């Protein structure tokens, strides 16, 4: 069996599972946020149960519009907060909260071998830790809160092998953008992407989170990595319960194997309005920008901020550009603060925010006007994603984003340092 | 049998254009329906009539997991969506809330906006009355038919819990 099939089988009453089969899968963690929880709670109440199956396996994270941007969002969060309190569900308040997919792994809530479902499409991020994690809808969450399991169709797996070693300024973001550019936004539809190869072995945990995060942008059900020493180093101090590491069988059947030589991959950019509209930065041409956002569940971790700081140190944000930097969680925030990164950012002329999804989904903290262009380390550049339907989003790594902020146009980091 | 008028779109219609995030600070279906498809087709809410049908090519509903997307479509009065393929979270969300989806590449290729379709959901039959053509959609696997017959996931879950209790 593939890694995906191994984990799923272990969460059913079956010995083995195979692609296409419908199974009921027991879940280790159920997630919802301030956008999706209100519907989940309403649907849960329709089932007619008083209590959720296990409040310690459910987590609700107010991260999209918080600190609340208006009365309507405050009402949604209030509904969720009160339900969480009444049920004893794990809940993080502003001041402790972070973007869900940065926060949950940090808190040791997601561990290798887990099955995690979340009413958020980027739940697939946790595959970085060797968990099977997938985005579902609010009604799925409602049913799982009642029963502790969920219906799933076992996905076929695509094996993606990354050979060679990464060039300077090339990050996990560039690997995943390159991959999506290659296979397309439905290139892994209904499938699980299993990432491996020596470039992956050498990749930081942050880089793996970034890659797993964007598996959904290729239509995948999950993106998953094998557990190695790096994973163990990350997990050990955080885990509060036992976990199991699964390995794919040697003869596991993959629907497809795709191989890349990463030495030939330079920093990448996704042009509007599709994550698959990818080009190497050097081929993008002269594109002047108005805003840069560095943050989100894709690239709001400490390595991301360190890379940005490396470029911004002693330099200034371009006159025309608003650069907004958003640590993904309070842990990242404190880490960045103690390392002196905020001083670098503020001296460069950037705005630093508390953890929030904010501009990533056009919520608040940097919404775009008509005709404006933004280089963003987030994961989607759909029409209207960050604001006005006539605004444009260019997806890139924190290195490209920081370089672009300095030069006022989509730029390669070498143009700043060279 | 159901009859309705077609609104046709292309590939990769994502949930951000079906219901933009700026309207996600509320979750009432009727509120959401007022902005359905806004960033793709400004006039959709003006044109759509109860019972109409959305037809699209590949990967319909890709992007965010927001159930607000199928909720908005359903509350706008759309009877069902026909596409070549659907994004997987959208697919489960729609089935879970009782918005019928049909996968049928031939029907999509031979249907344009404004055409009138006749749909037999149980048999997966799609008739294009304007062009006098008939198609059969992919049948649902048995598990999913059961889910649909229970009126969606909430009804199905209620039944499961009841059978556990006895
Ligand atoms: S940061 Fe963006 S993509 Fe990530 S959970 Fe928040 S809104 Fe979704």
Describe this structure in words.
The complex is a heterodimer of chains A (about 425) and B (about 170). With about 425 residues, chain A is α/β, with parallel strands linked by helices. In chain A, about 30% of the residues lie in helices and about 20% in strands. Chain A has 15 helices and 18 strands. Chain A has helices at about 5-10, 35-45, 70-85, 100-105, 140-145, 170-185, 200, 205-215, 230-235, 295-300, 300-310, 330-340, 340-350, 400-405, 415; strands at about 20-25, 30-35, 60, 90, 115-120, 130-135, 150-155, 155-165, 190-195, 220-225, 255-260, 270, 280, 290-295, 320-325, 350, 375, 390-395. In chain A, helix 2 (about 35-45) packs across helix 5, helix 11 (about 300-310) packs across helix 13 (about 340-350) and helix 11 runs parallel beside helix 14. The longest helix of chain A has 17 residues, at about 70-85. Chain A is globular. The model of chain A has no long low-confidence stretch (mean pLDDT about 100). Chain B is α/β, with parallel strands linked by helices and about 170 residues long. In chain B, about 35% of the residues lie in helices and about 20% in strands. Chain B is built from eight helices and seven strands. A seven-stranded mixed β-sheet of chain B has the order 4-3-2-1-5-6-7. In chain B, strand 3 (about 80-85), helix 5 (about 90-95) and strand 4 (about 100-105) form a beta-alpha-beta unit. Chain B is globular. Chain B starts with a strand and ends with a helix. The model of chain B has no long low-confidence stretch (mean pLDDT about 95). At the A-B interface, helix 2, helix 3 and helix 5 of A face helix 5, helix 7 and helix 8 of B. The structure holds iron/sulfur cluster. Iron/sulfur cluster (SF4) binds near residues 64, 99, 100, 101 and 122 of chain A.
Helix segment count of chain A? 15
Q: What portion of residues of chain A belong to β-strands?
A: 15-25%
Residues in helix, % of chain A: 25-40%
Number of DSSP helical runs of chain B: 8
Instruction: Please state the structural category of chain A.
Output: alpha/beta
What small-molecule ligands were found? iron/sulfur cluster
Main sheet: strands, sense, barrel of chain B: 7 strands, mixed
Shape of chain B: globular
Gap between N and C termini of chain A, in Å?
48 Å
N-to-C span of chain B: 37 Å
Most strands sheet of chain A? 5 strands, parallel
- Which pair of chains forms the biggest interface, and how many residues does each contribute? A-B, 53 and 43 residues
- Order of strands across the main sheet of chain B: 4-3-2-1-5-6-7
Categorize the overall geometry of chain A: globular
Helical residue percent band of chain B: 25-40%
Low-confidence stretches of chain B: none
SSE pattern of chain B: EHHHEHEHEHEEEHH
Rg of chain B (CA only)? 16 Å
Rg of chain A over CA atoms, rounded to whole Å, is 20 Å
